[in-house]
Amino acid sequence: MQDIQFNFERVWSIEPPGKHLLEGPVLSPDGTRVYFTDCFQGTIYEFDPNQPTVAPTEIYSYAPYCCNGLQFLPNGKLAACLWKGTIWPKGMLHELDLQHKPKPKTELRISHSTTGKQFRHPNDLAVDEAGGVYFTDLRGGHVYYYACGDTQAKSCLELDKPNGIELQMVSGKAQSLYVADSGTSTVLHYEIKSPGVIGKQIANQHFKIKHAVDGLALSSDGLLFVAEKGAVYALDAQLDPIGRAPLMKDDPPIPSNICFIDEKRFVVTSYRSFLCPNKAELFIGTIED
What we know:
With about 290 residues, this protein is mainly beta. The protein has strands at about 5-15, 20-25, 35-40, 45, 55-60, 65-70, 80-85, 90-95, 105-110, 120-125, 135, 140-145, 155-160, 160-170, 175-180, 185-195, 195-205, 215-220, 225-230, 230-235, 240-245, 255-260, 265-270, 280-285. It is globular, with a radius of gyration of 17 Å.
């Protein structure tokens, strides 16, 4: 299986007080910064991957909401997945204007589907060429599509616990969609017939560990990197595993999400077991030549 190899360096960690889960890394449009969240604290951080010894800077807090996935929109604003509540969670998508001074300004974008259903746990999102947003509702069991300018989102896919999501862009157009279903520990690949309309399933890969799969990221050469409960995996175009590595050899944390910085390097967010969620760590991965 080990057709490619990659290694990791821990660059930052956050510890008690409070419980922590790092999530949602995204590269800025100019490629100079990575933004990520401390989900349980509702906090967004800014990090310079080219100065990994410099600690990330907190730039905004959505507390008491939890803040999960992030993604930049064509207008330059940062879309954020928010949710609050354990038994009956309620969620929404916000847009954050990082250029607004003296501090970023946030605005509610959407909180309901076209059937009037309140989102429960927006988890991760991906943006197409028209500014439309595909996003997962982990505890709602749907993948939604929100067209730019609409006031509601339509369900385009129903899964057990849809989690990580990624678009494959071809000539600047969204051609297919990858989704991680944590409920079945499966990564699925679908064709996109038109914006918000999902076609046939192209491929899938099942992982043996229960609730295994989380965030997804495509490399520049089309490999799909998967944050899995025990390690980071690299999958080929058929979703067959061709590489695997834990974040650390001894007592490794659980990878949660992935964001590529360039052709060889990528950021990985992580957390410790939900039984002891008091520490979380940030890593930079490097694909070996």
